[in-house]
């Protein structure tokens, strides 16, 4: 009832509260379905893109609901986080040579540790029982991707210092993946694409009334970023730029009128959401 009385910005971010907590995690029996599908579709972090995550989530939810309609459909981030978690566990089992579960049985981990290669070396798997390589692959804590699955300069390898969306891999406060064109090389931020994206997502969520769960993975991550950093300053809606990190460089072609400063903190004006 009170939704219509909210400002544009408040309406945008209020939609996030409609996300069911269980849609952001995979637990219990859901894990077995996830791992079987990981093997079937050969899901591996360095081979996944936002589009592939969207397709994987649609297929996973279809099978999940077929198994039990009472299950809560998952969002792509749930699959992203679970794959990152399981790849780390697989690496640990391979490195130690211990494939026992808590029950003491080895069937589950023996099966899944050899199901999907976590790296490449002249076509030979780098994981699985009997492998000669025991060094655990390095994983990016931000995008949950195995960083160096291939040889030096392989296109599948993680960029040095930044993720595929252009955000610094050190900035864990900004969810992966952000929409393309807003960040580049871990050190550049472009306000105009940011503001254009903000307006487009507002139109999708508020004007078209699309549920946030139906938005692209990049849009969901963008809403999370903006929702955490928006505030009101001198009756003006602004985005706190400090969250981008001290090393970020902001496009200097933007007029000063786009920005505000208060107590040594810089802000980007969000006039595109003004009522």
- Let me know the average pLDDT: 88
Which residue ranges are poorly predicted, with pLDDT under 50 across at least 5 consecutive positions? 122-126
Rg over CA atoms: 21 Å
Share of residues in strands? 5-15%
Shape: globular
Number of domains: 2
What is the CA-CA span between the terminal residues? Answer: 19 Å
**Share of helical residues:** 25-40%
> How are the strands of the biggest sheet laid out side by side?
5-6-9-8
Reported for the largest beta sheet, the result is: 4 strands, antiparallel
Number of strands: 9
Structural class: alpha+beta
Give me the strand/helix succession: HHHHHEEEEHHEEEEE
In DSSP terms, counting alpha (H) and pi (I) runs of 4 or more, how many helices? 7
What does this structure look like?
Helices cover 35% and strands 10% of the residues. The protein has a four-stranded antiparallel beta sheet. Strands 3-4-7 form a three-stranded mixed beta sheet, with no helix packed on it. It has a two-stranded antiparallel ribbon with strand order 1-2. The chain has two domains: 20-125, no CATH class; 183-273, no CATH class. The chain has 275 residues and is an alpha+beta fold. α1 crosses α6 and α3 (50-67) crosses α4 (76-96).
Structural key phrases:
2 domains, about 35% helix
Characterize this entry briefly.
The protein is α+β, with helices and mostly antiparallel strands and 275 residues long. It has helices at residues 8-14, 29-41, 50-67, 76-96, 107-113, 191-207, 217-229; strands at residues 120-121, 124-125, 183-184, 188-189, 230-233, 236-240, 249-250, 259-262, 265-269. The strands form 3 sheets. It has a 4-stranded antiparallel beta sheet with strand order 5-6-9-8. The protein has a 3-stranded mixed beta sheet with strand order 3-4-7, with no helix packed on it.
